[in-house]
## 1
Amino acid sequence: MKYILLCLFILGLSFGKIHAQETPKTKTKIYAGYALFLNYNLYSWYQKPSTIERPLSSSGQVFNVLPGLGLNFWVGDVDHWIISVEGGIEYLPFALDTDIYKGMGALSIPILAKVQFPVAKQKSLWLMLHIGAGAQFLHTDIYARPDAYQNASNPFFTSIVGEVGVHISTVGYKRQHIREVELFFRVGGGPFGTASFNTGLRLTFWNRFGA
């Protein structure tokens, strides 16, 4: 995880240097803050590693009825780049394997580091992109398990993930990001057949320290 953070930090500094060269007369200001966000997963799919279950089995759900919740801490020159570290929790009550039913429900705890940057600006409305990487801790087939699987081992497993997203962000006084709507795609994998995929919408409420 520390190598992921280091790579994203270097990438963020690179964006800052590039923009600083393009606009040398602009004084760079570094801000920090936190943000709260709500996820609405449009589709989620998780595959267990073969160390837990053979043959490989997966669990998925379309249009989650419960929003995911999360928190991030960020720092950056908001005109050019923002680096953040975030964690969230997503519960899918109706996730299941449609081939062989082994239970319902899935829990996801993603922890990621991200770099976000604007690609177009129009007054108080900005179009932004982000790239990120991290780990996603997963648990599937949580409840309503058939008798044949009641005593079967069913631990958490981990998927190493990458994420990209496109944002529409409202920006207020002193370049303060206020609210943001985002479409994201998160793909991951791991040893022994572990795999994961999420796509959905996210609503973020930005806050700046000392604003």
Note: The helical segments are 2-22.
## 2
Amino acid sequence: MEELAIKLQKLVVQRMPFGKYQNRWLIDLPVAYLAWFADKGFPKGELGEQLQLLYQLKMDGNGDVLRQLHHRYQRT
């Protein structure tokens, strides 16, 4: 459970490092963009894991929870 909490904390303060949505908070990425990654393949590494988790959370209707966590842990 603690591992998931750490992953969520990192997820909600991470920005997209490349592409059309570069520099946007990951939690602000549209579901359609995440669905594209789900179809084509998520990037390798931690970013891919974060995007995959984000997609699942958004599909499960947890966008408001992500926003609350973002406000709690946002650094900049």
Note: The mean pLDDT is 95.
